[in-house]
Amino acid sequence: MVQHDRLQQTLMHLFMILLVLCCVLPFLLMVSASFTEEATLVRDGYRFIPKKFSLETYTYLFKSAKTIFRGYGMTILVTVLGTILNLTLTILFAYPLSRKDLPYRSVISFFLFFTMLFNGGLVPTYMMYSNVFHIKNTIWALIVPGLMMNAFYVIMMRSFFTASIPDALVEAARLDGASEWKVLLKVVLPLSKPMIVTLVLMVGLTYWNDWMNGLYYVNDQSLYTVQMILNNMINNIQFLSKNASLFGAEAANLSMPTVGIRMGIAVIAVLPVLVAYPFLQKYFVKGIVIGGVKG
């Protein structure tokens, strides 16, 4: 029995090691490719150790450093503001649904779940946000559409409240004269820190990586996020590479890191997330598994 447990544990460790390698190795390959000379990268392909080290990718990127830093500022603003609003609405929706004495609780839950299965489609959504709410070319275009509240996050938070906050604790607070707001702020939320941090990370990553809303609703370059700027940069480089002959001999001979630039852009976009994630990891893991443990 002991040997069987050890074998099972060893197999699980090997599986987790393979899983980690599947996540880490592509990232290392991406970083290595961003530091590899363009001609070498095209000729020899990707390597974990650059065959010929070069900074041409980052030299090209830092020529647009001012634009990229402005995009970082807009991305940080959108991420922080959007995450706060998303988390606030999620908690205010999920907490009442977690209370069994809420009138029409099942009906409200049905409408919440219904939004996960059906939506109006892209064209009606675009027309509504552009012609009714008039958010086009405003910061709200990067925050509201499809991101400010998500039914899946509401269900996650509701399940956490139901499984992890004892009803007896809430009832005791009510007997002591606490209002619903006080119960939520003083009792429920302090006990929900793991799930709150988990949602902060998940929602924050969604806002950080989003570029579709900007593509649909934003034409003002002062509102471009870093994802939109980098995506435009890739498109411009691809256009110049394919049509260099149209712009004369000088442009045709211009050396641009068209392959390595994709890797460098990915590194720049993901770097802040890598810095922040270690500080949130323990809460993220706890928030994900706590419902299953208590269930």
What does this entry look like structurally?
With 295 residues, the chain is mostly helical. It is built from 14 helices and no strands. The protein has helices at 2-34, 38-44, 56-62, 65-98, 105-117, 122-132, 151-164, 167-175, 180-191, 193-209, 212-217, 226-242, 249-252, 260-294. Helix 8 (167-175) packs antiparallel against helix 9. The chain is globular and about 70 Å long. Residues 249-254 and 290-295 have low confidence and may be disordered.
Provide a count of the helices: 14
* Spatial separation of the terminal alpha carbons: 28 Å
Task: Report the count of strand segments.
Answer: 0
- Report mean pLDDT, rounded to a whole number: 80
Low-pLDDT windows of residues: 249-254, 290-295
What is the CA-atom radius of gyration, in angstroms?
24 Å
Helical amount: over 70%
Query: Sheet with the most strands?
Result: none
Shape: globular
Strand-residue proportion: under 5%
Q: Find the structural class using helix and strand composition.
A: mainly alpha
Question: How would you spell out the order of helices and strands?
Answer: HHHHHHHHHHHHHH
